[in-house]
């Protein structure tokens, strides 16, 4: 029996769908009380005091966290309680029962000075989200039977940013995209395959899921517009430095090298 921690997340939902198709036995946690069932145990990382896991799980994957980089930067103490303290505590509880752990981490544990970072490269996070993820990595890897999978930007047609762009372009509205912030896009499908491989063989250590080359959000928006046959003059350059929503330090390079 497997456990998805964070079954309400986008990636948690994708994993659930994939495992349903494979007829695998698993539970997927939820924070929504109306969804609680034997297959959907209640796990709220903001409060683990009343945690009650009835099953001994063979393996567990951590998909839940505070994923907003700006929120982590603005509220480091509160976000750390979830992203570091609670996840580390839950990992210890599961590990004590013999559960193999897979923690989904991020390219933000690096400083962004170099493209295609290797799993063996030294970490040097430059924002709070990266520091929190880096700390959890260390805690997870101290436990037996554990692994870390670092991801770059996981994206597909259901991504909220792409939906926003599409809606605006369909209305012939201009969209602004950062020319000074990059992403290294990778698909949900590829991430799911990598997760399945690591869990099937219970591979321990640190692993990277490859993405595409580093590209600015502006260039990515132009590609998106071209594929949708939208007028290119609807795409405008913007800078994250002018955005009040971006309170963290972004990476210059975000790509990962899969060895």
Explain how this protein is built.
34% of the residues lie in helices and 17% in strands. The protein has helices at 10-21, 69-74, 76-96, 128-141, 160-170, 188-201, 217-227, and strands at 2-5, 26-28, 59-62, 100-106, 146-151, 153-154, 175-178, 182-183, 185-186, 205-208, 215-216, 235-238. The strands form 4 sheets. Strands 2-1-3-4-5-10 form a 6-stranded parallel β-sheet, sandwiched between helices. A two-stranded parallel ribbon has the order 6-9. Helix 3 (76-96) packs parallel to helix 4. It is globular.
Topology:
Elements (H helix, E strand, L loop, with lengths): L1 E4 L4 H12 L4 E3 L30 E4 L6 H6 L1 H21 L3 E7 L21 H14 L4 E6 L1 E2 L5 H11 L4 E4 L3 E2 L1 E2 L1 H14 L3 E4 L6 E2 H11 L7 E4 L21
Parallel strand pairs: 1-2, 1-3, 3-4, 4-5, 5-10, 6-9, 7-12
Antiparallel strand pairs: 8-11
Helix pairs in contact: 3-4
Spell out the CATH superfamily: NAD(P)-binding Rossmann-like Domain
- Report the portion of residues in β strands: 15-25%
Low-confidence residue ranges: none
Q: Tell me, what is the CATH class? A: Alpha Beta
Order of helices and strands: EHEEHHEHEEHEEEHEEHE
- Report the radius of gyration as a whole number of Å: 19 Å
CATH arch. level architecture: 3-Layer(aba) Sandwich
Instruction: Give the oligomeric state.
Output: single chain
The 3D shape can be described as globular
Biggest beta sheet attributes: 6 strands, parallel
CATH topology grouping: Rossmann fold
Counted up, domains total: 1
Q: Which class do the helix and strand fractions yield?
A: alpha/beta
- Spatial strand arrangement across the major sheet: 2-1-3-4-5-10
What is the average of the pLDDT values? 94
Helix content range: 25-40%
How many distinct beta strands? 12
Question: What is the count of helical runs?
Answer: 7
Roughly how many Å apart are the termini? 29 Å
């Amino acid at each position: 029996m497997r456990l998805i921690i964070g079954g309400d997340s986008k990636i948690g939902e994708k994993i659930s769908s994939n495992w349903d198709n494979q007829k695998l036995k698993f539970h997927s946690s939820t924070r929504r009380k109306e969804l609680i069932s034997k297959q959907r145990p209640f796990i709220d990382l903001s409060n683990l005091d009343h945690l009650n896991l009835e099953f001994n799980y063979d393996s567990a994957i951590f998909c839940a966290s505070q994923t907003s980089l700006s929120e982590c930067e603005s509220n480091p103490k509160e976000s750390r309680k979830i992203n570091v303290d609670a996840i580390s505590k839950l990992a210890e509880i599961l590990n004590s029962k013999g559960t193999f752990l897979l923690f989904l981490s991020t390219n933000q544990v690096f400083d962004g000075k170099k493209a295609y970072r290797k799993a063996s490269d030294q970490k040097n996070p430059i924002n709070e989200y990266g520091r929190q993820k880096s700390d959890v990595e260390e805690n997870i890897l101290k436990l037996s039977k554990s692994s870390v999978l670092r991801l770059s930007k996981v994206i597909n047609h259901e991504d909220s940013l792409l939906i926003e762009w599409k809606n605006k372009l369909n209305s012939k509205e201009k969209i602004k995209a950062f020319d000074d912030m990059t992403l290294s896009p990778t698909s949900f499908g590829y991430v799911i395959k990598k997760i399945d491989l690591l869990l099937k063989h219970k591979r321990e250590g640190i692993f990277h899921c490859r993405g595409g080359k580093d590209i600015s959000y502006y260039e990515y928006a132009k590609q998106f517009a071209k594929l949708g046959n939208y007028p290119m003059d609807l795409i405008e350059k913007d800078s994250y430095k002018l955005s009040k929503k971006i309170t963290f330090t972004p990476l210059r390079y975000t790509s990962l090298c899969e060895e």
